[in-house]
C-alpha cells in the first residue's frame, strides 16, 4: 500500500484542480492520499467526488503556525471542520491572508513592480477559485510583470521571508493549533520540520516539537523531498524520542513541484497508528 499524506490543489497554492489531483495520485500508483491545502478544506468535496473504487482520500489541511519568529506548518487530518473554535481561527487566518497579500502588492508597486490586486485575484481564481490567496499567486503576477524569471525567482527576489515585498501575517501558535485539531476530533503531524522560514536554521526547534507532542501531536514528516539524509535521520530520532510516528509525503503542488505525488510515502503501520485516535470524520473510501 502506497500512502502520501501531504498534497495541494488549486484551491490553495497547487496548480491542479482537486479532482485532477486524484487522477495524478492514481497515475502515481498511490492507494491513499491526503489532500492538505493551506488553511482551507474547500477542495475536499470535489476530490471526494472523484475517488474511484479501492482508493482512499484522507480529508486534511495544512495549518499556518508560527513560533519564535519562524514558521511552523501543521498537517491536520480527519477533524470536524465545523468545530467552532477551529473554524473561527481558520476564518481569521484566511482573512489575514488577503490583508497580507494586499500589503505585498502595495510594496511591489512602491518598488516599481507593476502588479495589481485585480490580477492577483484573477490568477488565484483562474487556477482554482479557492478561498486562499497566497504568495505563489503574487509570484506568478510578478513573473508576468517581468520582474522575475519564474516563481522561485519571484520568491527569492521579492516575496520570500525578508524580501522587500514580504509582509508578516497572523498565524496560530503551533501548540495551540495541535490542541484545536485534537479538540475537533482530528490527528496531526508536523510538516517538513527542517524547512521553515524566519529562523537562522529554518528548522523547528526540538523544544517546540516536544511541546506539540505534549499537546497531542501524532507524527513528524521526516521523509520530505526537501530534507537531506542527515535531516531525515535527525527528525526520525526526534520522533522516536517523543513516541511519534514517522510520516513521508510528497508535498506536491502540481506544476510548481514537478508533479511528484508518491515520491515520498508513509508506511501503512505508521498511517494506521497516526489516524487511530481520529473521531472528527472518516477517510473517504471509493466504493
From TrEMBL:
Pfam families: PHP (PF02811)
Gene3D superfamilies xrefs: 1.10.150.650, Metal-dependent hydrolases
Domain of life of the organism encoding this protein: Bacteria
GO molecular function: 5'-3' DNA exonuclease activity; 5'-3' RNA exonuclease activity
Residue span(s) of domain Polymerase/histidinol phosphatase N-terminal: 3-67
UniProt-listed SMART domains: POLIIIAc (SM00481)
Protein name: Polymerase/histidinol phosphatase N-terminal domain-containing protein
Origin species: Murinocardiopsis flavida
Amino acid at each position: 500500500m502506497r500512502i502520501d499524506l501531504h498534497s495541494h490543489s488549486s484551491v490553495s497554492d497547487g496548480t491542479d484542480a482537486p479532482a485532477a489531483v486524484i487522477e495524478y495520485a492514481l497515475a502515481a500508483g498511490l492507494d491513499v492520499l491526503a489532500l492538505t491545502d493551506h488553511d482551507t478544506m474547500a477542495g475536499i468535496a470535489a476530490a471526494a467526488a472523484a475517488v474511484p473504487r479501492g482508493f482512499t482520500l484522507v480529508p486534511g489541511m495544512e495549518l499556518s503556525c508560527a513560533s519564535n519568529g519562524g514558521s511552523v506548518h501543521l498537517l491536520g487530518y480527519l477533524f470536524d471542520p465545523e468545530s467552532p473554535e477551529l473554524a473561527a481561527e481558520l476564518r481569521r487566518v484566511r482573512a489575514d491572508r488577503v490583508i497580507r497579500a494586499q500589503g505585498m502588492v502595495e510594496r511591489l508597486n512602491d518598488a516599481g513592480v507593476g502588479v495589481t490586486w485585480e490580477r492577483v485575484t484573477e490568477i488565484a481564481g483562474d487556477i482554482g477559485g479557492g478561498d486562499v490567496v497566497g504568495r505563489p499567486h503574487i509570484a506568478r503576477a510578478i513573473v508576468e510583470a517581468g520582474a522575475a524569471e519564474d516563481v522561485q525567482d519571484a520568491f527569492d527576489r521579492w516575496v520570500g521571508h525578508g524580501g522587500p515585498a514580504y509582509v508578516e501575517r497572523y498565524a496560530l501558535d503551533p501548540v495551540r493549533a495541535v490542541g484545536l485539531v485534537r479538540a475537533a476530533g482530528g490527528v496531526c503531524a508536523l510538516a517538513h520540520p527542517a524547512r521553515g522560514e524566519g529562523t537562522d536554521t529554518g528548522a523547528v526547534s526540538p523544544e517546540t516539537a516536544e511541546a506539540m507532542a505534549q499537546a497531542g501531536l501524532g507524527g513528524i514528516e521526516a521523509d520530505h523531498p526537501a530534507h537531506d539524509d542527515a535531516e531525515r535521520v535527525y527528525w526520525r530520532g526526534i520522533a522516536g524520542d517523543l513516541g511519534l510516528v514517522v510520516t513521508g509525503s510528497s508535498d506536491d503542488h502540481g506544476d510548481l513541484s514537478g508533479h511528484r505525488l508518491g515520491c515520498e510515502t508513509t508506511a501503512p503501520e505508521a498511517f494506521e497508528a497516526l489516524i487511530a485516535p481520529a473521531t472528527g470524520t472518516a477517510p473517504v473510501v471509493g466504493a
